[in-house]
Amino acid sequence: MGDCFFMLIGFLVGGKVLDRSRNENSDAYAYALDRASRIWLPLCPALLLSAAVGSLLELPLSLGGFFGNLFGLQGVLCWSYGGNFPLWSLAYEMWFYFLAGCAAVATSSRPTNSRLWGFIGVVVCSMVFTRLDATFLFCWLLGAISYSQLSYET
To answer: Quick check: 74 and 88 in contact, CB under 8 A?
Structure first.
């Protein structure tokens, strides 16, 4: 089930990023703001609700775990916060979005300094995916490349 979900997300989000970066029609700041709001608007209330429920159930809660989940580090440096295990998928989504944005900047015709930061971001993502299941990254990339190929042929 997760494979299809991540392939679909790759197709709908990653493919558009690849397409825009190929056409030099991308705004890295707008992309980052769009993706951050997409993730954090539902995540922040979910984390607060998880803290409340976790407190009632006397689960171990930590500020480090809260911020780790806020920045998509569940499965990398911490576990899903407050026993809210579905949060694992948001870590993958965050890192896919970050990877797509960094790859778009690294391969763009922006100034060398910007491209260097994009490349560093790609390396950081590569390190993160040594801890996360890279199978989902592969599925996401298949979706992104499929979209990119479809839009390139038309």
So the answer is: yes
- Amino acid sitting at position 60: P
123-143 burial code (b ≥16 CB/10 A, e <16): eebeebbeebeeebbebbbbb
* Tens digit of each residue's pLDDT (9 = 90 or more) over 15-72: 877 777 666 556 778 888 988 999 999 999 999 999 999 999 999 999 999 999 999 9
Would you give the DSSP letter of residue 110?
S
* pLDDT beyond 60 at 154: no
Residue 140 three-state SS? helix
The Cα–Cα gap between 56 and 59 comes to 8
Element (H, E) at 98: helix 88-106
Alpha carbon of 133 to those of 16, 79, 141: distances in Å?
23, 14, 13
User: Quick one: three-class SS letters along 39-66?
Assistant: HHHHHHHHHHHHHHHHHHCCCCCCHHHH
Query: What pTM, to 2 d.p., does this model score?
Result: 0.85
pLDDT digits (tens, 9 = 90+) for 72-101: 999 899 999 998 999 998 999 999 999 988
Can you tell me the distance from the alpha carbon of 125 to that of 121, in angstroms, rounded to the nearest whole number? 6
